[in-house]
Amino acid sequence: MRARWLTLGALVAAGLGSAGVVACSSSGESAMADKAPAGYGQGGSWGGTTTTSSSSSGNGYGGGGPASSSSGGEDEPPNAEVPQQDAGADPDAAFTCEGLEKDKPLVLYLSADDSNSMASPAHARERLNLGMGAASVRTYEFLNYYRIKYQAPPKGQLAIFAEAEPAAEAGLYDLQIGVRSFDAIKPRRPVTVTFVLDTSGSMEGQSIERERAVVKAVAKSLAKGDIVSIVTWNDQNSVVLAGHEVTGPDDADVLAAAGNLSAGGSTDLHGGLVAGYGLATKHYGEKRLNRVILVSDGGANTGITDEEIIAQHANDADKEGIYMVGVGTGPADGYNDFLMDTITDKGRGAYVYIDSVEEAEQMFVARFDETMEVAARAVQVELTLPWYFQMHKFYGEEYSENPAEVTPQHLAPSDAMVFDQILRACDPKAVDGKDPVKVHLAWQTPLTYLPMKTEISLTVGELLESGGPALHKGKAIVAYAEALKTGSPEDLKAAYDAAVAANPGGDPELDEIAALIKKHPSWQ
Fold first, then answer.
1. Domain regions of the chain by residue span
2. What integer is the mean pLDDT of 16-34?
3. CA distance 32 to 145
4. pTM
5. Contacts of 474 (CB under 8 A, 6+ apart)
6. Which end of the chain is less crowded, N or C, counting CB atoms within 10 A of the terminal residue's CB?
């Protein structure tokens, strides 16, 4: 087995039948799972041939260069409460071997949305705790939020892990690919943070409390020399801090600004964004992490002008860009995430939902680097499969045989981007364990935009020889998200059983999932 990082560890096929569908979660851990998938370990390559290409490692970041395109995905209409569906083929469509060319493999390009987009699970959690069904369920965000223990590669590099197990239904195969980034570099680079804070009347109560908690949590994660600006907006905007250089964690001026936030008036998001980006541009630093953090209850609307402002700064051709971090505060019973989902898609940054004061600490202290930083830009996975496979169900954001139709996505440090799908064979008898499978991974370094790539070649037989705790947890996570979309008692029971079965060791995330399922109004 070749000892290489920047590897694609094994790509794997395996399956699940109908309701309790599959997939793995992203990782914020450095340690391996108790039982690592077969063929992994350091540089594990399933015995396939691995080729890698990289540039200077340095600190894993680099200098300036051209930016990538903004992220894709389907927008949800305003005020929609219909659970959002992920991209995927029609699972009921007929698929036969007739007309397929045996010398023409299936090549697919995959996208799972930026790894730090993870609002949907927290929003669902709050609604379930209130005895409500979930809304705006995006399964790939559940994969980003909940974590599996993948081993981190050395700085500046990526590693891929995969495992599988056969489906109960002949001809179906689960395929799960995890792309793991290097752990966050310590000490991190300096930060320039510009808060754009909603203080309109609708923020009164829990929303303003959560907003204060977000500012305080970020303040706890700052270091001496970091720069903070704060703009509040209701029917007018007010600059509270401009280019303030903090003294260290819990800077007194930042904490005072958080404590003085109050709600009242109507909304002028446009004015707040213009003022916020003006300050962010003025205090931009080429070697800094530059972020605009928009906090809102989602009640405002944004027009094409605002989206252009956000996208322009995120995709600046001469520098890394100022990414938008969207923070939803709820409350869940009236929250519409269209605003945050749309603008963070344009702004190439994180989208998180804060369902409690404690969640603010989780996202902006414990998972600060996952939420704020980028380890790899424009990550693209190219999957080459034997001719007899097709995509049966895809739990990411988008996939296509045309790479131009799939937007590459960013990957945060200490994190994993997970692609989960079910494949179908046109005839189970056509599946040959000796047939080749190839996965090609390409990305760019965050600051220098140097192209990086790696790939692995292995056989279908090698892919089908794995399966363990990581895969079982992944199945439970996806089963949970998919059951929230349907709300049917049968799907909820299957998801509950999957969470319990995957949790012999007391995983707190799986404990949470099992408990939340039982709070669904359709649980019987």
1. 49-112+148-179+375-517, 191-372
2. 34
3. 18
4. 0.83
5. 22, 23, 24, 25, 143, 148, 176, 418, 420
6. C
